[in-house]
Hints:
The chain has 220 residues and is α/β, with parallel strands linked by helices. The chain has a single domain, classed as Phosphoglycerate mutase-like (Rossmann fold, 3-Layer(aba) Sandwich). Helices cover 32% and strands 14% of the residues. It is built from six helices and six strands; from the N terminus they run E-H-H-E-H-E-H-H-E-H-E-E. The protein has helices at 25-28, 43-60, 74-87, 113-120, 141-155, 168-178, and strands at 15-20, 66-70, 95-96, 161-166, 200-204, 207-212. The chain has a six-stranded mixed β-sheet with strand order 3-2-4-1-5-6, with helices on both faces. Helix 2 (43-60) packs across helix 3 (74-87). The longest helix has 18 residues, at 43-60.
Amino acid sequence: MPQYDDDVRMDSNRRLFIARHGETVFNAASRLQGDHPHTPLTRAGFAQADAMGSALRATLGARPAITLWASPTGRALQTLAVIAEHLELDWHAARTDARLGEIAMSGWSGRYYREVIADHGPILDAKTGLFAMRPPGGEWYDDIAARLRAWLDDTESEGGDRLIVSHGITSRVLRGILTGMADAPEANAPIAPGLPQGSVVMIAGGSESVVALGTGRAPA
């Protein structure tokens, strides 16, 4: 079975479309989401999902032969529902996997950024949008990379194009793995540049191109 290390390159005949979910009520309120199971989309978030669906329809056409995947969180599934409608695909046929979920934050999950900063000092790198410290009891970037590589290995034999709706940080690590990026020293994992909420990229043959650039917050 293939191992997805830093030199991974996808089969050139397969395309992976990786989408970052739309804005949520937690994003709008500046609350940490992490692996919180359900944080509904805002009106802006639904508009972003709509724009992603329109861009993917223009790229793929109606009823494309593509497997739908998503994080099992409500925000990812809501985003996918809108996209699937554009593509005339059955949302109920989508597959979910917890390994596509966002970084686990343990006790930080659901708290306001201002509260955590008051307790711990600056927790984000303003330039990269990455966490500058590990959430107590939570995940770090190498943990995310390990579960994503396991998901890739477990599903490699299935073949075909995929649409994956995931999260800001998780999608950055997944994109880093699939494009063969070197580990970022501070993260011990490959991490692609951040893209706004509502963005979609296509990865084929180890190269990435932007299908839709979202209007939400960035980076993450």
